[in-house]
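Table 4 source record.
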Amino acid sequence: MNENQLAENIVHYRRKKGLSQEKVSEYMEVSRQAVTKWENGISRPSSDHLIKLAELFEINLDTLLGNKEEEKLLMQPEISTGKAPWIFIGISILCISVYVTGSALLDIFSIGAFICMFILCIPIQLFLHLYFSHAVKNDSFSTIAGFDNKTEYNIRELKKMLVQIDLHIGIISANYVFMLCAVHFLSSDMKWLSGFLIAAYALNLITAVMITNYKMADKIYLHDDDKKRAKRSMPITIIYILLLFIGTGITGILFEIKGKIKGIENNTMPAIKICGLLLLGITAATTGFLSENNRIKKWDPADMNYKPSRTGIAGLLICVILYGLICIL
């Protein structure tokens, strides 16, 4: 480290804070002559004094020492979610307003369609944007799914990932709200298409988040072991999500088909059995997923012979068997 650079930095940041040598010496509990020697490069502050100086100047220790890489990093532009998500939120609100007004005039208003569009726009698109923008602005990630306070992250790359996810949510939400609006204007007999669009939206959203997480794993984690654990958990998460979609999809199809053939309706015993088996299947899958995730967190990447937990395998098998029983009923 260049001692002259350290001396220049002490002078620079002292003046930037508007402090006199006397004020610095009082805070540091040293004589003014000692501060003068530091600033003239005659002597060098001890490690403890360097830490206290960095705290006094409210800067990083590397910056005080003249670490050019750190200074370069600090000079990089601040990451923010920007205005684009708000534009897509505005598009969604406009589509909903047009649908409510137009469908009321044409007497084709559907409360189900309105609820679907409302959920995509407000609880998902708007809420998640506010959630992500707050996390990015305030460096508050503890409530983000999958974030572990014990893991070391590259905060800048983590922010970039959240910005990408936020923008993608805005784009697909606006697109699907528009498509739902168009479908219900074109034909009131295409209710099945609304269900298809909602399922496609959910799959698109989850897939995008998973792909972004996978691509950014090498950047957002500082340690190789954490990168390996994150990538190991991806297939487990994908299998779990597929099980959820398959279960709800099978149930929806059976209600639609058997409702017409066998008269299965809500609040009937056959319907309760189907829903009960679905819930049991999802519970088994969730138990297996949580068990496997917990095992991965404790897994040592140096051990190449990774084996799934018995609970995880049992949860998968039980879920598949219960789904099979749903089809037989």
